[in-house]
């Protein structure tokens, strides 16, 4: 029986500011059957309060316990690595969260020794910041960490904007340094939540629209997955991709029917 549902957001329950049909009925089903749910997102350009407000305003009742982002995963990773001084290329919300635990450097200097360069999905990108991050990577044997590896972020009208994966690729081409990519598809995000909610992996179902993040993270973590066709991936993409979802649904609207069958 599935006791913990892990959900992507963009392309899975909504697109932009438009909630998909049947989403509210899914959460009513979770409540009725005492199924826990957590939104897991790679987007490090917003803090959890942004997502809590957005989802609540769409009519889905939730709180901080229902969200886990690549920011939290990155914070835990850097803490385990005993990082002290870091350079962060990302939005202010990412810097604010990391500033609570680490010393953030704001400029480049050959006299400053870093423990890590961190790159997140940066919608506030300033060229000087990008240059500084690359200079540290070029001149020091410093760890290069990325919150996520998504190449693009879906928005309204079937369009996309550049995401963190594209940014770290740009930096790799400049510095010849490859980032340690956290967030989905790295299994650590699921492993942490399995421990937090004290469930077995066969009691977890991961749902999303992207094969190389949402589905691959489930495969890497050893949990079942659902690929919904309401976002980025198509049936042709699924056939061609190495990491296969356990189930395929046209949209999340069909999830209660699936849960009735597999529970």
Structure report:
The chain is α/β, with parallel strands linked by helices and 263 residues long. Helices cover 38% and strands 21% of the residues. The protein contains ten helices and 15 strands. It has helices spanning 23-32, 48-57, 70-80, 92-99, 127-139, 164-175, 188-197, 211-221, 235-240, 255-262, and strands at residues 4-7, 14-15, 18-19, 36-41, 67-69, 85-89, 103-105, 116-119, 143-146, 152-154, 160-162, 180-181, 204-208, 224-228, 247-249. The strands form four sheets. A six-stranded parallel beta sheet has the order 5-4-1-13-14-15, with helices on both faces. The protein has a five-stranded parallel beta sheet with strand order 7-6-8-9-12, sandwiched between helices. The chain has a two-stranded antiparallel sheet with strand order 2-3. Strand 13, helix 8 and strand 14 form a beta-alpha-beta unit. The longest helix has 13 residues, at 127-139. It starts with a strand and ends with a helix. The mean pLDDT is 94.
The number of distinct β-strands equals 15
Report the end-to-end length measured between terminal Cα atoms: 5 Å
The percentage of residues in β strands lies in 15-25%
**Strand order in space, largest sheet:** 5-4-1-13-14-15
State the order of secondary-structure elements, H for helix, E for strand: EEEHEHEHEHEEHEEEHEHEHEHEH
Q: What is the helix content?
A: 25-40%
Principal-axis shape equals elongated
